[in-house]
Amino acid sequence: MSTGAEPTGPRLRVIAIDGPAGSGKSTVARRLAERLGLEYLDTGAMYRSVAFAAMAREVDLADSDAIVEVARTSDIRIDDTAVVVDGVDATTQIRGPEVTRSVSTVAAISGVRDVLRVRQRAWAMERGGGVLEGRDIGTVVFPDAELKVYLSASVEVRAERRAGEVSALDYETVAADLAARDAADSTRQHDPLSQAPDAIHIDTTRLSVDEVVDKLIARLG
Questions:
Q1: How does pLDDT run across 172-197, given as a tens digit for each residue?
Q2: pLDDT value for 172
Q3: pTM of the complete model beyond 0.90
Q4: What is d(CA 113, CA 109) in angstroms, rounded to the nearest whole number?
Q5: What are 156-159's contacts with CB under 8 Å, separation 24+?
Q6: Separation CA 121–CA 137 (nearest Å)
Q7: What is the C-alpha separation between 51 and 124, in angstroms, rounded?
């Protein structure tokens, strides 16, 4: 399968949801997938899984070739309830501070993105589509998606959401990590975080999950 930009094809129904951490992508994508009867994929969890696998194998994150090999050889299984990496339940660990601070380094490696992009497209092909969320789904992975969405929210709200997800993290730590992640993701050379020109932009700061999902369902007709 090519790693270049490819159309989804007529038989795929792909909804692409992008945006920074804490913007509500995962929650909205899950709810939207349920409403549409589609499956859901958190592509960010795939990058986190590679970072987790690299740490488990004690691979130097500065060694790009070695990290690409980790991405290529890792067995990553993601479903609605768990993330299993090389046979280890990493559902909680991939959301921890160590992986969070390392994932931008992993995600900036073009070879890693190539490997995971192929897996993401294969995932959708196997299912006839799906709701995929991440940072480059509408811009790179599925530029011809049926619907492209870019979610955002205030930094304060995003930090509160993330701190609530991981009880071991305090607000100040999360806010600092988010700021660093935003800078890294939006300025990286390969597939930076950006809004597709034809994506719907929704600020979720003051909206409930159902309000966001209702807006998207309305756009789908």
A1: 877 787 888 788 888 888 888 899 99
A2: 80
A3: no
A4: 7
A5: 157/22, 157/204, 157/205, 158/20, 158/21, 158/22, 158/23, 159/22
A6: 10
A7: 23
